[in-house]
Amino acid sequence: MVFAYALMGVRPFRDSAVQVLQKCEDILVPDSMRSELVNVVWQWIMKKNVDLHTGMQILSDADSMISLAVPSTLLWEEALRLACEKKHSAYDTLFVALAVHSGSSVVSFDSKLKRSFSDIVVSPSEYLGSAGRK
């Protein structure tokens, strides 16, 4: 949701989400992130919070920030194991599996995800206060 909050201007999360994206040197995502984001943008269009043109621009802006989109097929077995182990959505554990694989962190506003994977997931405020983990 960091991308969505930053690019869609969601208050009160926008400022810290923008700062997170600006601080990241490399942004790694599972390729499934694109389908999740397009669904969020679609929901916003349907609720009339943004128009189609703006939605298309949001997708383009997000895509330009991604350093590497890792195929989900490289992560899905680990993501499934983590999802079952922690009883957490596999959509989210794809990000955790990628962080484990790449030796980085997941920056997330999701407090449940952070509680489940406290060694991998950091809040935006923690990330912004750190020396620069991915």
Question: Would you kindly provide a written description of the structure presented here, covering whatever features stand out?
Answer:
With 134 residues, the protein is mainly alpha-helical. It is built from eight helices and four strands, in the order ααβααβααβαβα. The strands form two sheets. The protein has a two-stranded parallel ribbon with strand order 1-2. Strands 3-4 form a two-stranded parallel sheet. α1 crosses α2 and α3 (32-46) packs antiparallel against α4. It starts with a helix and ends in a 5-residue tail after the last helix.
Key words describing this protein structure:
Rossmann fold, 134 residues, 8 helices, 61% helix, mainly alpha, two-stranded parallel ribbon, single chain
Summarize the structure.
The protein has 134 residues and is mostly helical. The protein has helices at 2-8, 14-23, 32-46, 52-65, 76-86, 90-102, 111-116, 124-129, and strands at 28-30, 68-70, 106-107, 121-122.
Cα radius of gyration in angstroms = 14 Å
Q: Can you tell me the CATH superfamily?
A: 5'-nuclease
Helix content: 55-70%
First-residue to last-residue Cα separation = 16 Å
Domain module count: 1
What is the residue-mean pLDDT, rounded to a whole number? 93
In the predicted model, the low-confidence regions spanning at least 5 consecutive residues are: none
Strand residues, percent: 5-15%
Number of strands: 4
| Secondary-structure element pattern, one letter each | HHEHHEHHEHEH
Secondary structural class: mainly alpha
- What's the architecture, going by CATH? 3-Layer(aba) Sandwich
- Characterize the overall form: globular
Which strand order do you get reading across the main beta sheet?
1-2
CATH fold-level assignment: Rossmann fold
Largest sheet: 2 strands, parallel
CATH class: Alpha Beta
Q: Helical region count?
A: 8
